[in-house]
Amino acid sequence: MGEPATAEGQVHKTEWKVIAASSLGTVFEWYDFYLYGLLATIISAQFFSGVNETTAFILALAAFAAGFAVRPFGALVFGRVGDLVGRKNTFLVTMGIMGASTFAVGLLPSYASVGVAAPLMLVGLRLLQGLALGGQYGGAATYVAEHAPEGKRGFYTSFIQTTATLGLFASLLVVIGTRETLGEEAFAQWGWRLPFYASALLLVVSLWIRLQLNESPVYQKMKAEGTTSKAPLTEAFGNWKNLRIVLIALLGAVAGQAVVWYTGQFYALFYLEKILKVDGATANVLIAAALAIGTPFFVFFGWLSDRIGRKPIIMAGCALAALTYFPLFSALTAAANPALAEAQVKAPVVVHADPASCSVQFDPIGKTNFNTTACDIAKSTLAKAGIPYENAATGNGETTIGAITVPADDMESYGERLTIAVAQAGYPAQADPARTNTPLVIAILTALVLLVTMVYGPIAALLVELFPSRIRYTAMSLPYHIGNGWFGGFLPTIAFACVAATGNIYAGLWYPVGVAVLTLLVGLLWLPETFRRKIDHEG
User: What are the tens digits of pLDDT across the range 506-523?
Assistant: First the structure.
């Protein structure tokens, strides 16, 4: 009797070792990837200082998104390798690429030192990071799922799902600690590089942990029987039966999961810092607090999906996001910067001008002069200050701020007079920490994170179960990284471009709401339930 119990205990110990090692390595990769997002405001000043401030921030977000853009290509390259030669060795390679490229970001010269070469080198390293991450997630999720016992895949893979948030949390703690130690001025000048340097140590530790693992038992069995795929790309995407499932997985699950994820954890951070004018260190602390509260729910919803299914939880998360984003972000504005919320109600800002005379406040090459018309001067001034406004199609470019009218009679002083007037009307230059309702802000941010845990907790198990094991690494990686790389990764850029173009601080939310509704409709109609499926290689 003692021997079987010992053997069972050994198996259980091995399973947890697999979860711990896979999760820790993936936490490191997400730490690397998200450092850039946390430091987007500083990076815009360091690497994109040759354009106006609004454009620089959007370009910094675009460079952030570049890493996401190439993730599907990394999924194709490394997914194929993973199905051909194994799960373990593939994600060791991706980890090395990620660590080296992250460390190199800390070494880059600024725009002031080398001009346009600086952002080009930065984008190049972001592309390497994206390629590496494209090959990482599918391997980790597949590896853990193929070790998990039947009926526990949602629970086991949910630990992988916590890694993105834990990586973000770890990078937040490092950034906060460095900021507090050095002070804001030194951090903005050179201290921002230190968190990138720290990735070298994390890389060594993570590689050592991953080297202790054996290959997945499902893959070992396929290899021994000679049933591994010889052409995983063709088999996964050249076969309509599999390609159809790839498309359903993308549009009926991952796209909605991605926009909810990036809205709740990244757009919320950028919104606090850039729109609501909460200082960067405080915004980081607020997000970190919400993540600390919300992260255990990844595991809860993964566990719950083993009992009631993956689909109802993911669909409910998308539906709740679509219904609550506008009221939640409106409440966030009132809680984090009440002076801004009050000024919007008491003294709405309207630029009175023919829309044809107004430019979109985005200039990717830094050559547009936003000071040629009264409308452009007004919108440029307001966009730079983060002040919401509307555009009325009549008038000569004058701006009304409640009962105050700022005429456009003297173009040289127009922007300066407008800045003074909005301040007089109660629009704050920065959020007042004394007036910020910190518990309420954390509660709202936690609600956003809980939506993330609903859609993200069960998604790894769902994707693993959708595809046969011989092409699983390839087939699940592509929809995951198109969804998260394109639909999700471009969200901050698209959302802030919408805000800059319209002057409406909530306009960016239409994008995640629209995608969440699309996923809800496609998922309800065509996404199969998978939680009772077996995932052996006959799959």
Answer: 999 999 999 999 999 999
Q: How many residues does the chain have?
A: 539
We report the CATH number of the domain holding residue 369 as 3.40.30
- The structural domain count of the chain equals 2
Sheet-wide strand order for 404-406? 390-392, 349-352, 399-401, 404-406
Region label for 309, one of left (φ > 0), alpha (ψ between -120 and 50) or beta (otherwise): left
Residue pLDDT, tens place only, 123-153:
888 888 888 878 777 777 877 888 888 889 9
**Is residue 87 classed exposed, middle or buried when 0-12, 13-18 and 19+ CB atoms within 10 A define those classes?**
buried
Q: How far is CA 119 from CA 137, 466, 497, in A?
A: 27, 40, 19
Closest by CA to 157, choosing from 458, 450, 449, is 458
Q: Compute the distance between CA of residue 397 and CA of residue 307 in angstroms, rounded to an integer.
A: 61
Residue 133 shares a structural domain with residue 182? yes
- Tally of CA atoms within 13 A in the half-sphere of 251 that contains its CB: 11
What does the alpha-carbon distance between residue 79 and residue 53 come to, in Å, rounded to a whole number? 39
Residue 534: strand, helix, or coil = coil
At residue 350, the 3 state secondary structure works out as: strand
Instruction: Provide the pairing of β-strand 349-352 with 399-401.
Output: antiparallel
Tell me whether residue 68 is in a domain.
yes
Q: How far apart are CA 81 and CA 329, in angstroms?
A: 42
pLDDT of the residue at 367: 46
